[in-house]
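We store sequence with structure; for instance:
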Amino acid sequence: MVRDAEENAEKDAQRKLLQEAKNNADSLLYSTKKALEEHKDKIPEDVKKDIDEKLAATATAMEGDDAEAISAAVTELQTAAQKIGEAAYGQQQAGDDAAKKDDDDDVKDADFKEPPKDGDDKKDEKK
């Protein structure tokens, strides 16, 4: 039994790598599709098209048994999926900056003094 385990150790390691690559790809496919759906109105069409192509390539790679091909497809999809965040949060930040500029126009500086605390009045009177 030990000899069988030693003989199959390399095959098991390859199977493990393949399954981990497929799990990573599946997770990335799900999260990318979800993000794409959430921010579809903020993402330019050319970025959507690129991401859709990478999604299809990753799904196709998952059907095979080549862990390296799956990992390469995952890397390309990750790079493309970053554009979702850039597009979504870039527009949000631009809107926030415009809102801050509008809010800053009404700011006025003022000097003030803090009222003395109850214990501080009595000390000042005794001196």
Summary: The chain has one domain: 8-126.
